[in-house]
Structure formats: structure tokens, C-alpha cells
Recover the amino acids of this structure.
């Protein structure tokens, strides 16, 4: 009897210890989380909706290929359930995509896209996120992981942005419909298909696969996932902590306040001009600059503005022919430009 009670006590104690150690181990460890993370990948466009069709192959083909690579890679991780909003080449309403995400109890929806600009001058990657509350914070933090991955491919980081429509809510339908269902949904614009800096990134299966793998890695880092074969473990990685904003985070709809250009040096033989540029935008970061030798009729390729700086010194080669003036422009995060004063060259 005594012996039996002792054994029972030991068993109970042992069981308690097991539970306690499991709890301790489980804390912060996705490996022991009961519920898998549910990720919905949304290949942008489909069916009649081609997306960007600047190239012979429309955007919907690239988004589907990258989505499939992303799913394949993400499924190498433990504790994650991965869905695509559609696997066939079909037209699907944005609201249906969000509704699908809700039906599978999604923790996040990632809408994959490729970009082009009307001017064909923009290049780089960007992420569009919800404009309010924890959805904003989650979107920003995950977006940061994607852009970090793309920067490692050599792509220019065009930032994480919100966009508000005329009704005062999120402009992009997929973001709006996900937000209405309490799901963080973001748009990942991998690169610009119409720019020489970016286009090589979509012109081989290797590159498309790299996008898919990097998209999956971004998600794995964000959620702290661990690979089944142990080759990657992000369980102790902390993604960017983004404070929950009060109210809506608005986009910048106005140009930089000014751009002042000061000619420091001009060599009429080598055709190099060194210019100090100073600009200010209180609402969003400065992103690119460019110069013109025909008073703004044509512009040089956009160049990265020094991140976080108001002032930068640039040296430009103005080329040959009759060039007697130099004009600069600066663009903010939302690609809104301000021109400088006109510099006279002798
Ligand atoms: Zn698109």
C-alpha cells in the first residue's frame, strides 16, 4: 500500500514535471506549437486578368511560377500549412481571394506581383501593406523580411508603403478585403519587368525559383519556422518589431518641399560636374535623383538617393554635344518629383 502510494506520487510528480518541461520548452518554440501557421499565397492576377503585359509573357505567369516555388520551399518547414488562392489559370475576384484566406483560417496572405511603371524609369522591389492597427505592424514587419531578401539579390529597396483610396480606406482591394476579415494581407512587388536593372531577375527559371525560395525564407523568418531537415532554424530570430500605430498611416501625396542644387565643380573637358544637392520631404523618405541636360525634356537613369540623408554630393557625366545647363530632380518614396534650380554651365 505504502509502496503503491509512493509509486503513484512519483508517477504524478513525473507527469507534472513532464508537463512543466514541455511548457517551458514550448514557449517561443514553434516546434511544439499545437496549431500550425497558416500561410496563404496569392499568385497575382490570372485568367483574363493578365496583370502587367509589357513583356511577351504576362505577369500572371510569373506570379504563378513564383507562388509554386514559394509553396514548395515553405513546405520544407515544420508546423506550417500552405495554400494557394488558386492553382489554375483562372480569373478570381480579390474579395474571393480574401474569403478563401478566411475559410482556411489564414494567419497571413501574401499577394505576389511584378511591377511596371508608366515612365519605365522605376526599378526595384516594394511592399504594400494595410494602413491600420496590428495589421499595419504585421505587414510592415513581414514586408521588411521580403525586401531584405530582395536586396540580397541586388534589387533596389523601394520601401514599405500604405495607400489610401478616395473612400479613406486601403486603396488596394486585396489588402482591404483581407483587413475587413482581420487577416494581414500584403502585396509583394518583386521587381519591375520593364527596367533593365531588374528584368534579368525574371528571365530564367533559376531566378524565378530564387524569388520563390526568398519569399518562403522571408515568411519562415517572420514566423520563426524551423526546417524539417534542420538546415534552417529561425525559432530564435526576432523580426522587426513595429509599434501599432494610432489611427491610419497615410501615404505621402505631395512632392518633396524643394531641391537646391549647388555647382561645386565643372570640368568642360572631362564633362564631369560635381553638384551638392539638398532636399527635404517631411512625410516620406527621398528615394531617387536624376539629372537632365535639356531642361527636363529627357532624364538620366534614376539613381539611389543616400538613404536617410537630406544632402548629398553627386558627380555626373553630362556627355557630349552642346550642353549648357544642368537640372536635377529628386523623388520621394511615392515617386513624386521636385525639380531643382537650373545650373548654368560655361
Ligand atoms: Zn500585379
Amino acid at each position: 500500500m505504502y509502496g503503491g502510494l509512493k509509486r503513484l506520487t512519483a508517477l504524478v510528480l513525473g507527469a507534472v514535471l513532464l508537463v512543466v518541461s514541455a511548457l517551458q520548452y514550448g514557449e517561443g518554440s514553434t516546434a511544439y506549437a499545437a496549431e500550425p501557421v497558416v500561410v496563404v499565397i496569392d499568385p497575382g492576377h490570372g485568367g483574363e486578368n493578365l496583370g502587367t503585359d509589357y513583356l511577351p509573357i504576362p505577369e500572371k505567369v510569373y506570379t504563378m511560377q513564383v507562388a509554386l516555388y514559394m509553396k514548395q520551399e515553405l513546405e520544407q518547414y515544420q508546423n506550417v500549412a500552405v495554400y494557394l488562392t488558386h492553382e489554375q489559370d483562372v480569373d478570381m475576384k480579390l474579395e474571393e481571394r480574401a474569403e478563401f484566406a478566411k475559410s482556411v483560417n489564414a494567419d497571413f496572405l501574401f499577394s505576389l506581383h511584378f511591377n511596371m511603371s508608366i515612365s519605365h524609369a522605376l526599378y526595384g522591389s516594394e511592399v504594400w501593406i494595410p494602413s491600420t492597427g496590428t495589421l499595419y505592424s504585421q505587414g510592415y514587419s513581414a514586408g521588411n523580411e521580403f525586401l531584405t531578401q530582395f536586396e540580397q539579390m541586388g534589387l533596389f529597396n523601394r520601401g514599405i508603403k500604405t495607400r489610401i483610396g478616395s473612400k479613406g480606406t486601403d486603396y488596394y482591394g486585396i489588402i482591404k478585403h483581407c483587413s475587413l476579415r482581420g487577416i494581414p494581407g500584403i502585396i509583394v512587388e518583386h521587381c519591375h519587368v520593364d527596367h533593365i536593372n531588374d528584368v534579368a531577375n525574371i528571365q530564367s527559371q533559376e531566378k524565378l525559383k530564387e524569388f520563390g525560395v526568398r519569399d518562403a525564407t522571408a515568411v519562415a523568418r517572420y514566423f520563426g519556422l524551423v526546417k524539417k531537415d534542420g538546415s534552417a532554424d529561425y525559432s530564435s530570430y526576432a523580426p522587426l518589431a513595429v509599434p501599432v500605430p494610432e489611427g491610419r498611416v497615410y501615404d505621402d501625396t505631395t512632392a518633396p518641399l524643394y531641391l537646391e542644387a549647388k555647382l561645386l565643380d565643372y570640368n568642360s573637358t572631362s564633362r564631369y560636374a560635381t553638384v551638392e544637392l539638398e532636399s527635404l520631404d517631411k512625410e516620406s523618405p527621398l528615394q531617387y535623383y536624376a539629372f537632365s541636360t535639356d531642361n527636363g525634356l529627357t532624364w538620366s537613369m534614376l539613381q539611389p538617393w543616400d538613404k536617410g540623408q537630406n544632402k548629398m554630393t553627386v558627380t555626373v557625366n553630362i556627355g557630349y554635344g552642346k550642353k549648357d545647363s544642368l537640372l536635377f530632380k529628386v523623388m520621394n518614396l511615392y515617386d513624386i518629383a521636385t525639380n531643382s534650380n537650373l545650373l548654368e554651365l560655361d
